[in-house]
Amino acid sequence: MIERYSTDAMTELWSDENRYSTWLEVELAVCRAWMEDGLVPPGDLKTIEERASIDVKRITEIENEVHHDVIAFVSSLTEKTGPSGRFIHMGLTSSDVLDTAASIVITRGIDILVSALDELMDSLLRAAWKYRYTPCAGRTHGIHAEPLSFGLKILNWYSQAGRDRERLEAARRHISVGKISGAVGTYAHCPPHIEERVCELLGLSPAPVSSQILQRDRHAEVLYAIASLGAGLERIATEIRHLQRTEVLEAAEPFGRGQKGSSAMPHKRNPILCERICGMARLLRSYSNSALENIALWHERDISHSSVERVIWPDGFHLAHYMLLKMLDIVSGMDVYPESMADNLDLTGGLVYSQRVLLELVKKGMTREQAYSVVQENAMHCWSGNKSFRELLINDPRVHEKMEREELETLFDNDYFLRFVDTVFERFPDPS
Predict the structure, then answer these.
(1) What is the spatial distance between Cα 56 and Cα 9, in angstroms, rounded to a whole number?
(2) How many domains does the chain have?
(3) Do residues 149 and 243 share a domain?
(4) Catalytic choice (141, 307, 384, 432)
């Protein structure tokens, strides 16, 4: 299997280098806003912009001494910028930088996820249209129900992916805010117009009200959207895992040349990618719960959320991105077996057509209770291995009294169940 897409963009986004670089974006925007307001001389701003740069090693050295990451960061900048560095971090508290920068990183992370999701949705849509007329057994409770098309099954996945995309976009809107409001959100040392200008420079909106931090319901919404996306991917993966079972074998995830499925059994072809996605979805759900628990903090803030976010933010985005790329590989390379689908439709000897027989007997004059009893009785005999459902019905005088054999035969037809497939597909774009 060929890896067509890379996780490099997400890795770079959550790197230490980019974390500090984004903090620097915020600090420089604040310095520029202060310059425009007359506090920072233009020459000092020019010096800061030219000399301020990220030195991860030096920041780490200082942090090991002072045990405060933002102080270490600011100190490393002032070392490079000399006397002009006194204007860096003017009127700010650490969370002004941390939370505003986090909003930038998170919005960029969502953009990466949406881009990958768009690729997956395109692949799903193409597969759905390709198999829109391919009949297969629908299953409820794991038991054959009625025929549907395999393309309709995939179209359902596509539709859910679209809702996941909408949730990501909504979460992006709500997290695209900054705050430069100081230690408890009162703007005591940095007036609101500075915050407005900083957010404008950074492509954010000012939070209407904040404490020392941006309130964590925004971040919980992001983690929920990511966890919901993961659950949708898990839904697809779970279905493929079931369809890949030996006794079903209607579809299977791709199996690369040279790939091996078992150290002991050379015949094995296991759905390891789908199983991996299912496991990762569990992690994403736990991260969503952790994000919800971060909403309630003491007073204007405590620091209990910080250690959690250092794990769940980068891990959550990495997991979701990786899962998207893996699912794209799975869907675009999925093996589909229409012949097995047809064989499985016949597996129960026609039981999947029972409701149509029931309704036809009602139309012919039986009460629903009578028709249900006749159909169920024959169905139970069929389950027991006593001939096919069709044969049993043909030989049942109660059925024969209501319709001829030829008429009964017409009820066992997949096309009847797929006759509105085009109507559903017309609600979605045609990828051709």
Answers:
(1) 19
(2) 3
(3) yes
(4) 141
Per the structure block, which two tokens stand in for 378? 């024959």
What are the Cα distances from residue 291, in Å, to 113, 140, 227?
19, 34, 11
The pTM assigned to this predicted structure is 0.93
**What is the rounded distance in angstroms from the CA atom of residue 272 to the CA atom of residue 256?**
12
Given this model, what pLDDT does residue 248 score?
A: 96
Q: What is the mean pLDDT of the chain?
A: 95
d(CA 252, CA 243): 7
* Same domain as 285, residue 210: yes
Confidence of residue 4 (pLDDT cuts 50, 70, 90): very low
**Residue of 87, 88, 300 lying closest to 181 (CA atoms):** 300
Residue 393: closest CA among 337, 105, 404, 364:
404
Asked whether residue 132 falls in the same domain as residue 217, the answer is: yes
262 is catalytic: yes
Question: Same domain, yes or no, for 79 and 157?
Answer: no
Site of tokens 């985005």: 317
How many Å separate Cα 189 from the centre of its chain?
41
Q: Given 327, 347, 367, which residue is the final one in a domain? A: 347
β-pair partners for 229: none
| Domain edge (last residue) among 32, 63, 90 | 90
**16-30, 177-191, 249-263, 320-334: the lowest-pLDDT one:** 249-263
Catalytic residue among 15, 53, 115, 262: 262
CATH number of the domain enclosing 84:
1.10.275.10
**Domain co-membership, 361 together with 339:** no
The verdict on whether 141 is a catalytic residue reads yes
- Domain residue limits at 267: 99-189+203-347
